[in-house]
Amino acid sequence: MLRLPRFQYVAPPTVMDALGARLELGNDAMYVAGGTDLYPNMKRRQQTPRSVISLASIPTLREIHSSPELGLRIGAGVTLSQLAADDTVRAHYPAVATAARLVSTPPLRNMGTIGGNLLLDTRCNYYDQTYEWRKAIDFCMKKDGGICWVAPSSPRCWAVQSSDGAPVAVALGATVQLASPAGVRSLPAEELYHNDGMRYLTKQPDELLVSYILPKIGSWRASYVKLRRRGSFDFPVLGVAARVDFNPDGTVRDARIVLGAVASYPMRIAAATDALVGRRLDAASIADAADAAFKPAKPMDNTDFTLAWRKEMVRVYVAKALEDILSQS
Ligand SMILES: Cc1cc2nc3c(=O)[nH]c(=O)nc-3n(C[C@H](O)[C@H](O)[C@H](O)COP(=O)(O)OP(=O)(O)OC[C@H]3O[C@@H](n4cnc5c(N)ncnc54)[C@H](O)[C@@H]3O)c2cc1C
Ligand code: SF4
After folding, report:
1. Ligand with minimal distance to 160 CA
2. Closest CA to 207 of 55, 22, 8, 10
3. CB-ligand 1 contact for 55 (6 Å cutoff)
4. I want to staple 76 with a disulfide (CB 3.0 to 4.6 A). Which of 60, 72, 209, 296 is the partner?
5. Is 208 near ligand 1, meaning CB less than 6 Å away?
6. From residue 188, how far is each of 120, 174, 176, 193 by CA, in Å?
7. Going by CA atoms, what residue is nearest to atom 1 of ligand 2?
8. Atom 35 of ligand 1 has which residue's CA nearest to it?
9. Quick check: CB of 35 below 6 Å from ligand 1?
10. What is the pLDDT of residues 232-268, one digit of tens each?
11. pLDDT per residue as tens digits for the range 183-216
12. How many C-beta atoms surround the C-beta of residue 153 within 10 A?
């Protein structure tokens, strides 16, 4: 059995108190929401905070507010189960509800939050292992070692962004709000991520994610599809999120196709947008967008299935995501 190391646990009642605790406890402290990512990582000694600041006692983080000017404001502490069941989210943002519903199992969705999902640690077959397993291969660059076993001559880590929620957030053009002692800043979800398996977030360690803000509803539709080995349980080995904006005449005004689990960040495919804009969303334009997404997708050999097959599936799943949008018409 894997055991947690000893650590200090505090559960402040407000965001301000949580920021104060982080200031006091310093860089050895981490925030925890549902703990479904952080605690397993601590058991495997991948992440080793001495103090953990729980956000579970902050009621304001668990609220969902609707506003015509801003869209939908979702507290970072809203659980995935809550998100998947929310009537407004299901009616107007089905891609968000679908992504939440497809994460892992019911117990993990009952604990796991959307905030923790967007900030999920990157994953790799050589990293998501016990301490003893990792020690046996002399660790790797992401934690405790010096080499990348996926690409030994590489100066960087290629661990994979494996969140189901992150590609949807980027495709929708959502915004996140981060609080720190300096105040609150907003940024597009796309700017939350770095293409680097170790420094995968632009968020500063002391910043607390407070809100996830979805765009106003309008003449756009979105979808999310996921590939994994076991449909009841597994992380994605490929996720495709798509948003298509329509002109009044039914042609495509804009589109965002974002791939999850093929790189260290949710990867937006500009060539797929180019293949769709100005055309009707139909079998021909969907096939062209799927082809356009195939070339830039370069999955690494560090998750489930062979990388050649995962790359081939990009074409299939981009088409599926766009066909889903077509079926919503
Ligand atoms: C067996 C298993 C299967 C899983 N399958 C999937 C899957 O299919 N898809 C998927 O996307 N995920 C999956 N997960 C990962 C995880 O359960 C979810 O992503 C979940 O939403 C994480 O949320 P959490 O609240 O538990 O995060 P936590 O573990 O609490 O936190 C995750 C990270 O975010 C930080 N953090 C959390 N909230 C905040 C905040 N508000 N401000 C600042 N920092 C914060 C923490 O410090 C930590 O670094 C799986 C996990 C397990 C154990
Ligand atoms: S990609 Fe390389 S450095 Fe990163 S976790 Fe995997 S083996 Fe380690």
Report:
1. 2
2. 22
3. yes
4. 209
5. yes
6. 17, 6, 6, 10
7. 158
8. 116
9. yes
10. 889 999 999 999 999 999 999 999 999 999 999 999 9
11. 999 999 999 999 999 999 999 999 999 999 999 9
12. 6
